[in-house]
Amino acid sequence: MLSRMEKVVNCFSKRPDAAVRLLCFPWAGGGSIHYARWGNLISSSVEVYAIKLPGRESRAKEPFAQSMQQIVDEVVSALLPELKEKPFALFGHSFGAMTSYAIAEYLKRVHCLEPVHIFLSGISAPYSKTRLCAPKKSELSDDEFLHWLTTVGGTPPEILANPDILKLFLPVLKADLHVVDNYKCSRPESPFLSCPVTCFDGKEDIPHDLQGDSVEEFSPADGKNMFT
């Protein structure tokens, strides 16, 4: 029987003597394999823990997470001893970036732990009015949802053109977007972490609201403004 940590973590290259652990969280609809491969390429001083979420990969038979807090509770419960053991950093892209923020906030508030660095990619600040004002993508009809996927880009066209693959892919993606749509947090009154934060955006991406200051108007068909 798998331990709680083995259930939640995909680690291709175990490095018990590594100086730091890097926890990687998947994008909406994504799995752990891509980040787990980093463990074979990255410095031997870093041990990569790619997080496996319910409803996909070896956890395909489990129900999807219904809330961000459910994800946070499971990950922290499984990894707390390891997080106390040595320094750790967090990386997440899109939905994974929001998960990284939620994990960091909870660890600091509840366990007085914080990462040595956070890397966030392709996301507006979680308290951004731009994000909070955007239509809920998980509530779109299938036709509207596929139109949004096509417009926003990032999904391989062979997936969008294959009905059998879509049947497997869409439920996972919509489940993650349901978590995003219903995740709310307030802007901190003061910085709650002392660690550095590095933010990434693609050269061809629409710039994200990293500071959480801007407000934009949206229409349901305006896919490029519906950040994941």
TrEMBL record:
Chain residue ranges for the region called Disordered: 208-228
Alphabetic keyword roster: Fatty acid biosynthesis, Fatty acid metabolism, Hydrolase, Lipid biosynthesis, Lipid metabolism
Any GO BP annotation: medium-chain fatty acid biosynthetic process
Molecular function GO terms recorded: fatty acyl-[ACP] hydrolase activity
Top class in the EC scheme: hydrolase
One Pfam family cited in the UniProt record for this chain: Thioesterase
E.C. code: 3.1.2.14
Domain Thioesterase intervals: 21-211
SUPFAM superfamilies xref list: alpha/beta-Hydrolases
Superkingdom: Eukaryota
Record flagged with keyword DNA repair: no
Record carries keyword Lipid metabolism: yes
Catalytic activity: (9Z)-octadecenoyl-[ACP] + H2O = (9Z)-octadecenoate + holo-[ACP] + H(+)
Family according to the record: Belongs to the thioesterase family.
Protein name according to UniProt: S-acyl fatty acid synthase thioesterase, medium chain
Organism: Megalops atlanticus
